[in-house]
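Bug #2210: token dump truncated for E2 NEDD8-conjugating enzyme?
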Amino acid sequence: MLMLASKLKREDGLKGPRTSAAASDSTRRVSVRDKLLVKEVAELKANLPCTCKVHFPDPNKLHCFQLTVSPDEGYYQGGKFQFETEVPDVYNMVPPKVKCLTKIWHPNITETGEICLSLLREHSIDGTGWAPTRTLKDVEDFRNREEDYIKRYAR
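Reproduced locally. Full output below:
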């Protein structure tokens, strides 16, 4: 799955010894986003519950992926919900864009599939918005806290 990291290592080996730092920087520049995603995607896949699956349409583009959630309990039990995540170039200064591809009625999902969570906003009134210290795993953890809240109070 971490094809980008291995691809970068292979390219480095093929180029041989570097003649100058400026020349190597101009021929290949890896974004901060891609460096962070190699680590975060591995961590995300290792910690996903069995009811969730990650799919990368293009394994070389870690910044675009789909998450399929199949709840095994609660109101949405038996359903299969797909979410599309796109991580912008300036990640992690801005949050990833998450969209629900499955038509669903949920108070935090609009008719067009936009997700309305303070965690996915750059600036939030309640102070729980996106911060550069957050990761993709925080988005998953927020979903788990929301499910706990629904189980406890939405009866």
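Output looks complete on our side. Helices lie at 3-15, 21-27, 32-47, 136-153. Marking as cannot-reproduce; reopen if the truncation happens again.
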